[in-house]
């Protein structure tokens, strides 16, 4: 998420910049496109590197960090393809959590990606599509960040490349690539920020407002949480700029407000029904049970720690700090370089001062309700200790993710610092000579100053490189997962599942159990509906909970798996099993190979009677019983 702001020093004709984002100098526009092509090519290679472990066996590997999320997003790609192929409403589905279904707008559904890519998913399959898109999203985010930086903030393409690479592949972003492609799909955010900061341009309020509205509307279907973070960052940037440039702000306020109103109105018009459906449609909910996300704040030590998925990272340190997400994890060299850059640039640069405000505000905000230090909760309250758990919009936020704005600010700061160093080496405009050379030692003094300047520039470049090279990502960790049974992939289930009935896999998919059985649905194009699943839906009080409410039979299955022993089965258990199968509209129960296959077969035999062996699975045909 880039936060581009213009440095007044880039425009020699206007030391006091009136706009937050300005058009680039004409000289920059005429630069050859070769630098752009090389930058994008490097980003693509980095994207391939990050996903390298998946490509070794793409159909049988998932993230070893978040295998459930990985499988969920494979299922989402299948959902997009199914919705397009069958012309069904993509905002809701009963292919999971049958018969109640899942509100896709109330979940991270990535509809802005899965729907337009549906033809490719149908052609390549959801596993290939997932790995392909993951690397492409990282690369695209870096590329749009590079474009915005090079066109609106810096002259040096090398500076834009460094900033873009960090914004696309920062440790906090790559960490989310472990099963959460929605948090690496940030390619629209630099364009949104750049457009927001140009809303005050005289005479262009319609154009800017329309462009902003379209971008915001589309981003809603990619990741609403990142859009909210971007909006908060833009608010801080605009306020910080207004404080520093009150006259320019007053002059442009009218155009800014008009464009913002037009953009907001257009975005609302385009997304009104989906947003209504998200909060009022079937299977919608209000907040998460217990405000579970509010306790997830950023550990102070995390800022100076190398992330696991970087070449300097160490898994042992990750376990010590014990955080669920690594949203910052800059490493101590980058923290030192960033602080030094802020100290050196903040007096001469409006953008640097704005970046400093962003870093301070969002670092503090990311701490959470309690200050954590090296994995230990201190007795010091954090800012979120005073934020109500049920505050609208905020109720779903995770404090640690606010530090992603700090990531963006650091990326822009790196570009600004590199560009400042590069600019220091540009030859100055020679002053007109008014007389003959007086024979003094000016040349010697100038040469000494030039030498010192070159040494300092080189030291600055080396410092930035030393800070970012350790953060080069490693291939994401992956683990092998068994393929679905041949009975599933070959369509052996078809005679057993008539229209309107479900296939009940054992174990029933949930947010803890049944990872492999959820993939049965994804890898068959969601041709049969299944009960349970991995999603957020309402409980009996309308609060959001992970997964479907457990029924007696699903609870019995999970407890048997955990104990690896069949409990004593009563007639009440058998009656409940029939009731549950009737609720699920089941036609066949299927058990495939797995680490608990034997004990689950014995359990289901106690509940439903002896199974049949068909192909490579055990089945219980229950059409006549429910």
From TrEMBL:
Pfam families: DUF6311. Keywords: Membrane, Transmembrane, Transmembrane helix. The chain crosses the membrane at residues 37-56, 130-149, 158-177, 227-244, 256-276, 329-347, 354-376, 396-418, 455-473. It comes from the Bacteria. The keyword Repeat does not apply. Residues 427-449 are annotated as: Disordered. Residues 78-377 form the DUF6311 domain. This is DUF6311 domain-containing protein.
């Amino acid at each position: 998420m880039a936060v581009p702001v213009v440095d007044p020093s880039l425009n020699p004709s206007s030391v006091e910049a009136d706009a937050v984002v300005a058009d680039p100098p004409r000289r920059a526009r005429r630069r050859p496109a070769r630098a752009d092509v090389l930058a994008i090519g490097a980003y693509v290679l980095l994207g391939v590197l990050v996903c390298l472990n998946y490509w070794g066996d793409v159909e049988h590997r998932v993230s070893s960090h978040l295998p459930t999320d990985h499988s969920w997003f494979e299922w989402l790609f299948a959902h997009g393809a199914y919705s397009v192929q069958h012309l069904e409403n993509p905002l809701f589905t009963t292919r999971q959590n049958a018969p109640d279904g899942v509100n896709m707008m109330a979940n991270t559904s990535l509809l802005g990606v899965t729907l337009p890519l549906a033809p490719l998913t149908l052609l390549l399959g959801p596993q290939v599509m997932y790995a392909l898109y993951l690397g492409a999203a990282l690369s695209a985010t870096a590329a749009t960040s590079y474009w915005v930086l090079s066109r609106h903030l810096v002259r040096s393409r090398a500076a834009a490349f460094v900033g873009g690479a960090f914004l696309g592949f920062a440790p906090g972003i790559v960490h989310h690539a472990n099963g959460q492609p929605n948090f690496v799909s940030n390619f629209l955010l630099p364009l949104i920020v750049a457009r927001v900061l140009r809303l005050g341009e005289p005479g262009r309020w319609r154009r800017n407002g329309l462009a902003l509205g379209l971008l915001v509307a589309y981003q809603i279907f990619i990741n609403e949480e990142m859009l909210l973070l971007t909006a908060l960052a833009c608010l801080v940037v605009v306020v910080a700029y207004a404080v520093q440039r009150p006259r320019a702000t007053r002059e442009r306020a009218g155009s800014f407000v008009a464009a913002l109103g037009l953009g907001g109105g257009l975005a609302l018009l385009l997304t009104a029904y989906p947003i209504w459906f998200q909060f009022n449609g079937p299977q919608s909910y209000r907040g998460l049970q217990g405000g579970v996300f509010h306790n997830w704040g950023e550990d102070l030590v995390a800022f100076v720690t190398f992330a696991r998925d970087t070449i300097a990272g160490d898994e042992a340190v990750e376990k010590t700090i014990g955080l669920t997400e690594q949203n910052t994890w800059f490493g101590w060299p980058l923290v030192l370089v960033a602080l030094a850059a802020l100290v050196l640039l903040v007096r001469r640069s409006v953008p640097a001062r704005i970046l400093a405000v962003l870093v301070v505000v969002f670092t503090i905000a990311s701490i959470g309700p309690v200050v954590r230090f090296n994995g230990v909760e201190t007795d010091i309250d954090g800012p979120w200790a005073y934020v109500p758990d049920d505050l609208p919009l905020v109720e779903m936020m995770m404090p640690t993710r606010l530090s992603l704005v700090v990531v963006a600010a650091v990326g822009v700061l790196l570009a600004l610092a590199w560009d400042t160093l590069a600019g220091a080496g540009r030859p100055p405009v020679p002053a007109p000579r008014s007389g003959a050379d007086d024979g003094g030692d000016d040349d010697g003094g100038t040469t000494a100053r030039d030498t010192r300047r070159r040494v300092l520039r080189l030291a600055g470049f080396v410092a930035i490189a030393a800070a970012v090279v350790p953060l080069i990502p490693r291939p994401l960790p992956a683990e092998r997962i068994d393929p679905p049974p041949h009975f599933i992939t070959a369509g052996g289930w078809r005679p057993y599942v008539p229209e309107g009935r479900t296939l009940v896999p054992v174990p029933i998919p949930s947010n803890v159990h049944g990872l492999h059985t959820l993939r049965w649905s994804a890898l068959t194009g969601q041709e049969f509906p299944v009960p349970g699943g991995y999603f957020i839906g309402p409980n009996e009080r309308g609060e959001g909970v992970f997964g479907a409410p457990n029924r007696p039979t699903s609870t019995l299955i999970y407890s048997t798996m955990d104990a690896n022993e069949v409990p004593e089965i009563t007639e009440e258990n058998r009656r409940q099993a029939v009731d549950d199968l009737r609720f699920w509209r089941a036609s066949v129960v299927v058990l495939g190979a797995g680490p608990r296959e034997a004990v689950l077969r014995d359990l289901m035999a106690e509940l439903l009677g002896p199974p049949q062996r068909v192909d490579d699975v055990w089945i219980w045909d229950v059409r006549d019983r429910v």
